[in-house]
Design a protein that fits this description.
- The structure holds 2 protein chains of 2 kinds.
- By secondary structure, chain A is mainly alpha-helical.
- The mean pLDDT of chain A is 88.
- Chain A has 20 helices and 2 strands.
- The two termini of chain A are 20 Å apart.
- Chain A has a two-stranded antiparallel sheet.
- Chain A has a domain of 219 residues.
- The mean pLDDT of chain B is 88.
- By secondary structure, chain B is mainly alpha-helical.
- Chain B is globular, with a radius of gyration of 22 Å.
- Chain B has a domain of 219 residues.
- Chain B starts with a helix and ends with a helix.
- Classes of the chains: A mainly alpha, B mainly alpha.
- Chains A and B meet through helix 17 and helix 18 of A and strand 1, helix 5 and helix 6 of B.
Chain lengths: 486, 490
């Protein structure tokens, strides 16, 4: 069953290219139903999982490829499978303006399987394997437009990701050598007897591996690939570079910290302080760059950089509450950011406008898109009643609860970043709705909201942003259960 | 319970309806709808603090530790009274004033929403609810600032937005810390942090208190984050400036009152570095605001600087943390609210009829618009603090309260600065009266024509003037009530 949900996207992707479809419509229906079916299967699997490990291949010693449904895997795979059908629906409409659709959807759908592989991997080796694969299947998506800029961006993405994976690989080797096994066990698998007095070496290796996985999660100083990769079509930027790929990085770090090295080994050491400071710096750095950036999609990409480090900040607190907050922000940020990216994509699709200063007065012409954008902007800022506030509240209380001084400064970083978020998001909103009295609406003639395939995903996301903001206790309870060992 | 919710959500929903519906066929219909909305909201607010007085209820829980709750206590009554009076008067004034502006529907839409949000702030029962509506107030009052759509107005509104957000996030830091140290965040007299006093986290809590004071103080124009106020208030249409300067800034005051007296408790902060730092900031603001107002040539801007200074009178009284001083502060909330609305409406009436904005252009204005200028003069005297108007009583209590307290240096420095500032207040308000009524021998009386504005404008001004005089003439009952209130929250 687990293998099935990982394989279906590959099969569907292959079929979508090879099968002779009569027209575009039937091809769309085939892909959409395959993806939806897979998502339903994933949710069925999550609700009826047995906790058993599914062993696919056994190499030697404790090296094997195996899958298992556990807490964080449920959260990540549930999230991804909820978003993918919506994003695919949106992508159909968006890609009508681009070329080579079939190739695009081939890789786009394959990525779904790979991401599920990361989420459901039962040990570090399996996760590492899918992690590398993720880089390879997403490179063609970044390159899609085949402009010089896109090729440069994809090359950069490739080098950064592979380089990062190499560092993560060192971590993997150390776990193989010094761990009881490579399986994911809450609390870590390190064998203290084997380590002896080499604890600081291992902590150093942890930092290396953190930074290695951190490349995908865009921690400073390895973040510059993400804004550049924004040249990809918006469905890619929205789903992959705000959710699947970058969150795989964050997810891998959570696995590494809580399930491989173990928090007891790291908590209170220089390694924790170091990674925490890195995330705090990234939080502020990402936001400041976003304020400076005038290209809307790149601005959102910088915002993603900052928000990913919110997640990592929660993770580096190394307490159950910290992990709860991290997972909560992982889910909420996915919804908020995909909503805002889809809005940016809808604007590009309808008007070919890319820069913030080109958006004057569009709020009246595209009320639905900018309405959803406003909701997502307010949520990202952390206005109470919307999703962002809840996750920020949880992050801050987890930081206070952990009692460390560095974490207190982390809260200050969060709040500075919230202010900067207000600046870079609300300037867009104000421009769109209040262009000033001298504005000539004639320049916007013909601009209108996109069709239902784009609007439906947007409304669903907006609905969930509000729902999570008002009522998230069951989810938070579930995540806490995950953090203490579901 | 339902009354409170209705008084909050009816105006918000009506405002949203006005915003999304298409233009009305005639202006009359728009005004009728707005008028109905304002009166209904006012009535509901009054009904909720009379009928539901003392009640409290939890609407729902955002998460287990974050209830959205409402409650009606004396402080709600005080601020709600002010809100209703000011919003109704300024709303009536708008009906005439907004004739010469465009996009009236949007203006009234946001005006109604702001009314609802202000009611919610008055009736908020815990810190989270308060914070929620505090942020909403910023977001929904911003469109009032940028209403005329000029580049200057849009920039001013962004400045307002970002300063307020900065303050809100500073306050949020405090909220985080408080919630970590207390299981509940309900407002209760005397504070909720008794257990934390003297504990190891007391240092962090003091820092949190300071962050909240400065953060919420942004809305109340407290130094060092006051710079948005003189930029943002004058660019709004005059009735909106009045609302901003008289009640929306009072939300900052209410926030500070709730924080100091209902969350931390005066005993927690008295004698700490937080109190000293806060006193210094308020006195700097009082003096600086008056000085800046004194050298400002544009009338509305001058009034905005005056707001900066006057609000810090209130904050000073609250910072002293003595019964007498707090009484003075609360009285000044009312007095300043009424007076500043009247002043801004006078300025609006002058702009509406003459189109002139600078004080030096207004020679002989008293001959042209005697009624408006008489009201202006009377309320000016009130703001300066000359008996028998409202400002005198409140300043008297402030000064006495400060002298009675045991705080070294500030107990006498405070009243001195207040007096200097009162002198400056006379210096920046009265020149308009003097020039207006006594234009000098070379004034051209030939072309003088009476041009008093319509009753829609003069009636609100008159009502506010009379009210501000009444609190000055018969302060006994009000003062007694506020003294009891002050004694209870200390």
């Amino acid at each position: 069953m687990i293998l099935l949900v990982i394989l279906i996207p590959f099969i569907a992707a292959a079929l979508s290219v090879w099968l002779p479809f009569r027209n575009r419509k039937s091809w769309e229906i085939f892909l959409e139903s395959a993806v939806t079916l897979n998502s339903i299967l994933v949710w069925y699997l999550l609700l009826h999982h047995s906790g058993n490990t599914f062993l696919l291949a056994h190499f030697t010693g404790n090296l094997s490829v195996s899958f298992r449904v556990d807490g964080p895997g449920m959260v990540f795979s549930g999230l991804v499978s909820a978003l993918w059908p919506l994003a695919t629906l949106y992508a159909f409409e968006y890609m009508t303006k681009e070329e080579h659709e079939k190739i695009f959807f081939l890789f786009y759908t394959m990525t779904y399987g790979v991401t599920l592989g990361i989420a459901l991997a039962a040990n570090l080796l399996t996760m590492y394997f899918f992690y590398e694969l993720l880089t390879l299947v997403t490179v063609p998506l970044v390159m899609h437009t085949l402009t010089r800029e896109a090729i440069l961006a994809s090359r950069k993405y490739l080098y950064y990701s592979l380089g990062g994976a190499a560092f993560a690989f060192i971590g993997l080797i150390m776990i193989i050598v010094y761990g009881r096994s490579t399986d994911f066990v809450l609390g870590g698998v390190l064998d203290l007897a084997k380590i002896g007095d080499r604890t600081n070496v291992l902590r150093f290796i942890y930092v290396l591996a953190f930074m290695g996985f951190g490349v995908k999660a865009a921690v400073c100083p390895f973040n510059s690939w993400l804004p550049q990769a924004g040249v990809a079509p918006t469905p890619v930027t929205a789903l992959l570079h705000a959710v699947a790929v970058v969150k795989s990085g964050a997810f891998a770090i959570i696995r590494l910290t809580y399930y491989s090295f173990g928090t007891d080994f790291l908590r209170g050491t220089w390694a924790q302080t170091f990674v925490m400071l890195v995330t705090m710096f990234t939080i502020v750095y990402g936001c400041s760059r976003a304020v400076k950036e005038t290209h809307l999609k790149r601005r959102l990409a910088y915002s993603t950089i900052s928000n990913l480090s919110y997640i990592l900040f929660g993770a580096t607190l190394m307490t159950p509450l910290g992990m709860t907050a991290a997972l909560l922000h992982l889910v909420f940020h996915a919804v908020m950011k995909i909503a805002s990216f889809f809005c940016a994509g809808a604007i590009i699709h309808q008007t070919d406008r890319y820069y913030v200063h080109e958006l004057d007065g569009m709020g009246y012409k595209m009320p639905c898109v900018f309405g959803v954008f406003t909701v997502s902007a307010l949520a990202l800022m952390g206005v109470p009643g919307l999703a962002g506030f809840i996750s920020k509240w949880n992050l801050a209380s987890a930081a206070l609860e952990s009692g460390s001084t560095v974490a207190c400064f982390g809260i200050v970083c969060l709040l500075i970043s919230a202010l900067l978020t207000a600046i870079y998001m609300l300037t867009v909103v104000v421009r769109a709705f209040f262009p000033g009295r001298d504005f000539d609406y004639g320049t916007l003639s013909g601009v209108k909201d996109p069709n239902w395939m784009m609007l439906v995903p947007l409304f669903i996301f907006a609905f969930f942003i509000v729902l999570f903001g008002l009522y998230s206790q069951p989810l938070a309870d579930f995540l806490y259960a995950v953090a203490i060992g579901l | 319970m339902y009354l409170i919710l209705l008084s909050i959500f009816i105006p918000i929903l009506m405002g949203l309806y006005l915003l999304v519906r298409k233009e009305y066929a005639s202006r009359g219909r728009l005004l009728a709808t707005t008028c109905a909305g304002l009166v209904l909201t006012g009535a509901l607010a009054v009904a909720s603090f009379t009928a539901a007085y003392g009640s409290s209820f939890t609407l729902f829980y955002l998460t287990k530790s974050l209830p959205i709750a409402f409650a009606v206590d004396e402080m709600s009554v005080l601020f709600s009274c002010l809100t209703v009076i000011v919003l109704l008067c300024a709303g009536l004034f708008s009906f005439e004033y907004m004739k010469h502006e465009t996009k009236e529907k949007r203006y009234y839409g946001f005006y109604l929403i702001v009314f609802g949000v202000l009611n919610a702030l008055c009736f908020a029962g815990n810190l989270v609810t308060f914070y929620l509506f505090f942020e909403m107030l910023t977001l929904t009052s911003m469109p009032l600032v940028l209403h005329n759509g000029s580049h200057e107005a849009i920039m001013a509104s962004l400045k307002y937005l970002f300063f307020s957000m900065c303050g809100a996030y500073m306050a949020l830091f405090g909220v985080f810390v408080v919630s970590h140290n207390s299981a509940v965040l309900t407002f209760s007299t005397g504070g909720i942090l008794h257990a934390a006093a003297g504990s190891p986290s007391a240092g962090l809590l003091l820092a949190a208190a300071f962050a909240m004071l400065v953060g919420f103080g942004v809305k109340a124009g407290m130094f060092p984050l006051h710079a948005w106020l003189p930029t943002a208030h004058p660019v709004a249409p005059a009735p909106a400036s009045a609302v901003l300067s008289a009640v929306i800034v009072k939300a900052g005051i209410l926030a500070v009152v709730r924080t100091v007296y209902y969350i931390f408790g005066a005993d927690f902060l008295r004698g700490t570095w937080v109190q000293t730092a806060w006193l210094i900031l308020t006195l700097i603001t009082v003096f600086m605001g008056s000085m800046l107002a004194y050298r400002e040539p544009v009338l509305k801007k001058r009034l905005a600087y005056s707001t900066v200074s006057q609000l810090s009178y209130i904050l000073f009284g609250l910072a002293v943390m003595g019964a007498e001083a707090v009484t003075g502060s609360l009285l000044h909330v009312l007095a300043h609210g009424l007076i500043k609305t009247a002043l801004f409406l006078c300025a609006g009436a002058i702009i509406f009829t003459t189109g002139r904005t600078r004080v030096d252009e207004l020679r002989g204005i008293g001959k042209e618009m005697p009624f408006t200028m008489w009201c202006y003069t009377i309320v000016s005297l009130g703001l300066i603090g000359i008996p028998p108007t409202g400002g005198f009583v409140s300043k008297w209590h402030l000064a006495i309260g400060s002298l009675q307290s045991a705080i070294p240096v500030f107990r006498w420095l405070g009243p001195v600065i207040l007096l200097v500032s009162a002198l400056l207040t006379a210096g920046y308000l009265l020149p308009l009266t003097i020039q207006g009524f006594l234009p000098g021998a070379d004034y051209d009386y030939e072309h003088l024509k009476k041009r008093e504005p319509s009753p829609l404008m003069t009636i609100p001004i008159a009502v506010l003037t009379i009210l501000s005089v009444l609190i000055g003439l018969f302060p006994a009952q009000l003062t007694d009530w506020l003294t009891r209130l002050a004694a209870r929250i200390l």
